[in-house]
Amino acid sequence: MIPGRRFLPYAFSGGVGFVYSSAVVHFWGIYPSKSTLTQWFLTEFAMKGRAIAYQLAVYSHDILLNVLLAIPFAYVIGRLRPKRDWAYLSVAVLVALMLNYGHLVFDLRALRFLLREFGFYMGIVMLLVSLPIALTLIRRFGRIGNVMAKS
Questions:
Q1: How far is 85 from 106, CA to CA, in rounded Å?
Q2: pTM value?
Q3: Where are the domains of the chain?
């Protein structure tokens, strides 16, 4: 057996977390300015004084998109052997979390400001749950690991 071979899937899942984090940041950097749905949420909810409806619509939309973005990455993690999906997911999510929020350890002024914002917490929650939800959906409705038997 090759020394360190058992750690290879963990390193690979860390790489998946890195690429996932980069893809999500890139997507959210472009999407809001190109989406007509974002503008529609503003005109139909926020500008008509329905702030709670606006927040619910935006966060529901964002959670759905984050889970959809996570599906290909969750699929790759689900294909790793030996089967330790939740351990691999944990590594990928921790890498993504450190890439997106790790810099705040060195910028305490920004962190103090962000700790007062609900969107900051929603961003962290979405990052923490998107990959696990995506893998759960794939396991439930997909074909990874022969979960669905052919009739």
A1: 32
A2: 0.83
A3: 10-141
